[in-house]
Every structure is written in structure tokens, then in C-alpha cells.
Amino acid sequence: MLKIGIIGCGAIGREHINRLTRLIPDAEVVGCTDYYLETAKKTAVQYGIRTVYKTGEDLIADSEVEAVMITSSDPSHATYVLEAVRLGKQVFCEKPLAQTTADCEKIIAEEVRHNKPLVQVGFMRRYDPGYMEMKRIIDSGSLGAPLMIHACHRNVFQPEGFQTEMGITNVAIHELDICRWLLRDEYKNAQVLKVRQSSRSTKGYDNPQIVLLETENGSRIDIELQVADGYGYDIQCQVVCEKGTINLPDPNSVIKRADATCSVQLLTDWADRFTTAYDIELQDWVNCAGEGRPTGPTSWDGYVACAAADALNRSRGTGKFLAVEMIEKPALYS
Prior knowledge:
Pfam families: GFO_IDH_MocA, GFO_IDH_MocA_C. The chain is of the alpha/beta class. It is built from eleven helices and 15 strands.
């Protein structure tokens, strides 16, 4: 039984607590905390969690907590991850791993010091059955080499305080990971473009944006990013190979025919779209963390996504591709 402490009891934190307490038999949530302590107390009552900690640092330091799950706000991730790794604890950190490459490098250095990967980053799409099948086909070589990826990430709306840069670091960060994973290739250059703005762009951030990437092997990736599309949560991906194409399937949905129309219900929420992926992801993390062995997306994967995001945000307004700058990959992650 893996004893887990949760830092962050917001929307995704509660989603994960629900999975860990109701779906995953080898996990026990022994404690939780939140910036708003009252939220943590209410969550503890709801899920029968016996200890509420005043701070994330208190939770991490408790010897009863064997593994730490970080689902707090993005700016807090790096500090909590680094502290948990220093103590040699297994960590699950929701994306992004950190907001700067410098913080990612500190985490990597600490794992290297332990000579052991301890962190899994919450890039759940690697566990989605559709993406997994796409990768299986690509890796089989049956369609030849992958040449291009066309993708889009469309959200219905964003909360107050959302900023243009967050479209890359918080939203398109999933595409930055999954495209690299599908291609088994590293990023070389990156550029983000501002295009004609939607009338729904009324809160001061760019919407839409176009993300362009070039890999070391010369593959090209374009990603349409809309953070306020007004119609649904819509994730699309097409890989163009030498002998054919591979398209990410839409979620299963009943087709309704009525009133001379044929329609399919669209989802509006990330939690509904990737339910299965989250289930598989957390089960895999609990299994592997309990055995103390490497698991899914590592700190290095989180670092690469952060480095690509940095290049994209630096490129905004320049009209140029900028190099994705990274340190040498430690042998630990090979």
C-alpha cells in the first residue's frame, strides 16, 4: 500500500484524490494540504483523509508520507518537487514540472545526485488509448517515417488572470510533450505566431496562437491553439507519414439523427475527455512508485517541454524561429 500525500485540493487535485481512494487498490491518501486550508479540511472530510497539513513542506517532511502528489498552482510546483526529491521521495507532479528551465535543471541535478529518477510529470496523454495506438503504428514503421504533425488544442474558456504566455506553458505544454513522444525526436527550433484574433479574445490574451516547431530530424509540427473557442473542448492530432496518415480518434459518442440533422455531442471539459488516460496514468504511477522504479514521463521530459515553451514565448513578436536551448541529457534518463 503506497501512502500518498496530496498538495493542492483544487479541481484536478480532487479528481486525483477520487481516483486514488476509489479506483486504485494499492494507494492510500494519508494526508493533504492546500493554500486555502479550509479547502483541504473539506476535502479530507469528503474522502476520509486523516491528516491535514498546514503547509506542503510539512506534508513532504512527514515520514508517514511515502510519495507526494503535487496538484497545486503552477508557480508552486518546482519548490515542492525539489524538496520531495531531496528527501528521496517518489513524486507525481502535474504539468508543468516548473515554470523555468533553471528550476527544472535543479530538480534534474537532485535526481542525478540520488542516481535515481523519482519524478513523474502529469503528461497523461501518453496513457490515452488513441495516442498510444498512434504511437504503435508510427513505431511499427508500416507507414514509413513521420514527416509532419498537424494538431489543435481548443478550450471553451479560461479563468480570470489567464495570460498569453500561459497558452504555451499551461495549455499547449501537452502538445509539446506528446508530439515529441510520438516522433521520438527532439526539438530544434520553435516559433509562435499571433494570427487574426477571435472576437472572444476580450480578456487581454492572444487567442488564437499558432505554434510551429522543427525537430532535429527535420519533421515539422504546427499546432493551432485556442483557449476560448466558445464551442467545446476539442483535441485533434494528425501525423503525416511517408505512406499514409494517422488521425487521433474523437471520443466515443452516440450519433443522433433528428429534425433532418445528424449530430454528435461534444465534450466541454478536459476531465471528461481524458478520463481513461488519467485512470491508467495514476495506476501506473502507484504501481511503479510502490516498487521504487522509473515510471512514465520523467523530469527530463518536463524539462524539454519547458525549454520548448521558453523558446516559443521568446519568439513571440520576432517573426523568427528561435533555437530550443537545453543542457546535455544526463545518462540517468537514457
